[in-house]
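Entry 14. Structure prediction run on the chain below.
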Amino acid sequence: MKILGIIPARYASTRFPGKPLALIKGKTMIRRVYEQALKSELDAVAVATDDVRIADEVMSFGGRYVMTDPNHRSGTDRCREALNLVEEKYDAVVNIQGDEPFINPLQINMLCDLIRKDDTCLASLAKRIVSADELFSPNTVKVVMNAKGDALYFSRNPMPFMRNVDRDEWMVKGVFYKHIGIYAYKAETLRKVAAMQASSLEIAESLEQLRWLENGMCIRMGITDAESVSIDVPSDIAKAETFSTMNHFE
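Output returned:
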């Protein structure tokens, strides 16, 4: 099975315009994501962008890019267009978040292992929540899974609800998982989910993966212990540089 890693990277981020070109200890964020992806088992990696400035940066370090429509509603749609534009044929795609400059290659490999299985058409990752701040933050997306490891639901609210348990004791008496926003799809599945209309649950929670669940798709979840750092706003750069120093990234 040939697997393509695609890094969606748009310039016009509302909270952080030009984010892919932000410097982290002398390297642009898009370069750091790309270099981490190259360390994985992927057969190829490409940046899917809508801006010539990002394309020029990718070219400057010898990377591969695909120019895509600036009006896509999500990274999934951008990945679908990129898959259609590349010359080679790929059996599966890993959608790698362009704002995680230190993504662990082992997490990408875990997704590759999951999507290679015949009974997996869609896969993603989860990590156990270790702090109450994460558990109760609406910015941390939670996921609950069945006994086979398939996602049952994603929410910005804490899940499961601990009835008759004081909120201060939830972390002690419960087990909770956060969603790591990286996906793998069989090629035909990517084309199918990108064509789906927005669903009521997706609109309510502002989570596109709920569209897939609501349409009967199965999302197989892998459990990872690896910690990373994502960049949402300019102030996160300092956090990323600290992470880089502590984990010995060049």
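The mean pLDDT is 92.
Filed with the rest of this week's runs.
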